[in-house]
Automatic annotation (TrEMBL):
Name of the protein: Thiamine phosphate synthase
InterPro entries linked to this entry: Aldolase_TIM, ThiamineP_synth_sf, ThiamineP_synth_TenI
Transmembrane spans: none
Source organism (scientific name): Croceicoccus esteveae
Source domain of life: Bacteria
Length: 185
């Protein structure tokens, strides 16, 4: 059975780690968490993932792991996040296991289509603290790119609820854009 693909994603980072539990409780049911936490040692990373997985599932969210698909399955994640070639569907038994592809260009969006990704995260749409000084797509270009592929695309990079609304209530994801705000619903 295929899982529904959330339209709103919280992306974990060392900058928002202290807020993750609160945010998962406040997000509307059915959102997603992309667990990265590259800053942690392997054992601490696994322990933090397990705690957040339980909390995410208690609030009817999905959680995907930024790692190899085999690791994501071993950790009982709901899916995997990464470059299109890394998340490709390898067996029919992986149906229901979400695959989220990173993309920064039309070519990478097309790679997400070829690898049967369930969602591509297109970035950076706006300037972001994650990649200071990086060239941004801008909202118009990002929307034009997303319309070129038969794939669900979430906007990432400097996204906030207000920016998503201005872009037409698109699927979106954020590291900082969901934190320290009065309401995320």
């Amino acid at each position: 059975m295929q899982r529904p693909v959330p339209g709103l994603w919280l992306v974990s980072d060392d900058r928002n780690d202290d807020q993750l539990a609160q945010l998962l409780r406040r997000l509307p049911s059915g959102c997603g968490l992309i667990f990265r936490h590259y800053h942690l040692a392997p054992e601490a990373r696994r322990k933090r993932f397990d705690a957040l997985r339980l909390l995410a599932h208690a609030h009817r969210h999905v959680i995907v792991l930024a790692d190899a698909p085999a690791v994501a399955r071993k950790w009982r994640a709901d899916g995997v996040y990464g470059a299109p070639a890394r998340i490709a569907l390898r067996r029919s038994s992986e149906r229901g296991f979400l695959r989220l592809a990173t993309a920064h260009s039309l070519a990478q969006l097309a790679a997400g289509v070829r690898t049967a990704a369930d969602l591509a995260l297109l970035s950076p749409v706006y300037p972001t603290r994650t990649h200071p000084g990086a060239k941004v797509l801008g909202p118009v270009r990002a929307l034009l790119l997303a319309r070129q592929v038969p794939l669900k695309v979430a906007m990432l990079g400097g996204m906030t609820r207000a920016r998503a609304r201005r872009m037409g209530s698109v699927e979106w994801a954020a590291i900082d854009g969901l934190g320290r705000c009065p309401s995320v619903s």
